[in-house]
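Homework-ish question, so no full write-ups if that breaks the rules, but can someone show me the predicted structure for this set?
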Amino acid sequence: DAGVTQSPTHLIKTRGQHVTLRCSPISGHKSVSWYQQVLGQGPQFIFQYYEKEERGRGNFPDRFSARQFPNYSSELNVNALLLGDSALYLCASSSDRTYKNIQYFGAGTRLSVL
Amino acid sequence: AQSVSQHNHHVILSEAASLELGCNYSYGGTVNLFWYVQYPGQHLQLLLKYFSGDPLVKGIKGFEAEFIKSKFSFNLRKPSVQWSDTAEYFCAVNSPNFGNEKLTFGTGTRLTIIP
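A: Not a homework solution, just the prediction itself:
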């Protein structure tokens, strides 16, 4: 079975640009979460979506937005990119909303902002 | 708000040595606890988890962790490490009391095993 897939793998942007990152969850998983992992740090929670609705939002500015589609795939959008947005962006999926879920992570999209 | 502390930033061990990586969390309510591992060039993978019940949990590849509620700790152990255990290890916590599945991660411990 395919795991969580993310695209693109790597991305280089300049300050002020906009970026869209994509995630396909494991088949049958309805929940998708996004995390930002800055070099040398642990992942930080950005968003969780379940059944196309936002279920949680981390401490990130409004430049960050996301959505989930009817097939449960998801997009993370970041506007007006800053140098500090350079990071590995991770997507995780889980099967439902119960708290005894395991989140399965994709390999991530490495974003470099120049 | 939850926080997770991993005080060992980089640990270097020889093969066959015993391992213990520390993890402390701050939230006093009901928690779920996880250890994830990130091998070089690979994605985060779950090593083991604690939801409830026996505080000593066993995971893959011979790892185990003990939940000590009074100490807010969930330390990871392995009696005899192998070169292939070289990786970054992350402790994480979430809680059913926060309305979503958000995982709060520690800063990670880089483990280097010397053959």
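Now go work out the reasoning yourself. Hint: The CA atoms of residues 32 and 94 of chain A lie 7 Å apart.
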